[in-house]
Amino acid sequence: MDNKNYSRRDFLKKAGQISLVLGSGLSLETVFGGCTSIRLLTENQEEVDAMLESHPAIPTPPGQCYAGWHNDVPLFWAAFGQTSSEVEDTGFEDETKILEHYEKRFGQGPAVHSISDRNIGRHYFPAGVVRAAHSKGVIPMIRYYPVHNWQRISQGAIDDSLKEFCDSAVEENKPFIFTPFPEVGLTSGSHPWIKWDPKYFVPAWDRMYNIAEKTDVNKIMLWGLHLIGSFTKMRRPYKPFYVDPSQVNMVGVSLYDKPEVYGRRPFRTGLGSDYHDITAKYETKPFAIWELGTTVRDSSGKRNEVAMGKWILRTYETITKWPRIKLLVWYGINWRDHNTSFIIGEAQDYYRKAISNRHFIGSRKL
What CATH code is carried by the domain that includes residue 74? Predict the structure, then answer.
């Protein structure tokens, strides 16, 4: 991983930090204005960096933040019926095309590419995709969509397929981020777990983590807890989804701005109390914005690429002031258009400028 603004030596020196907590404690120094807004007063960057844990294979960057992107690899919707080699070859080609497309538009690749894997329950590890990402200097992030509910998982329903997934990952031996059940806690939408019983979530996570631990995959796999953010009222409280801190490496939320609902609220307002609540529970864990996005249309329904771009630029500039945020993944959905393609039109110029800020880490330009 490299870019012109980031010292790899400085980056790697954080790799060995595990569970370092300042003896005197570190105040969040956070106050709330109103019910949903949050105002960060001061968090010293050096103190925060010293406190945060770092995964040995994917270190926590001091003073900076990974800039990521989400775009599904087409292979995942048509992998059935293919041989293992065909899946790997197709995945490599598709992933390479997506990353090259991104780089062509924005001048550098993302540090992290988020993809969805709905086939893990069918003995499938996307080795080709992972290999292609690393060939471009990009860390792959696999969002896991299960074929069984938490109760069945906690009772062993995916033990065999998960072990096969982990064994394949160890054999490939390339670091990646693993986020099971993205946006957990959401109570409306298409995710299969919106109606699952929350009391089985932690037991299911515990079982999955322990299976992974026995295969040694956790040496190259960073566990991410992806909670649904305060931007929506359609969510459960976080408490049922707070897993053991020893079983997670990074914790964070999704955050979207929908002007028909929020009127383009600033980032801090949309984040609400999430940052305070989650960092209070997971004080030494890096914070992630697993999904960040805004619609390309304004509140009247008119296409407005400039407004979208300005919101992106303001938001990225704001995030540079939040020292615990170490991963920011742009999720390029235009809700009215149901379009998951790249940022379009004039918004691209603003996005390009946003990720060029030296605070954000991208992969090397070809």
Answer: 3.20.20.80
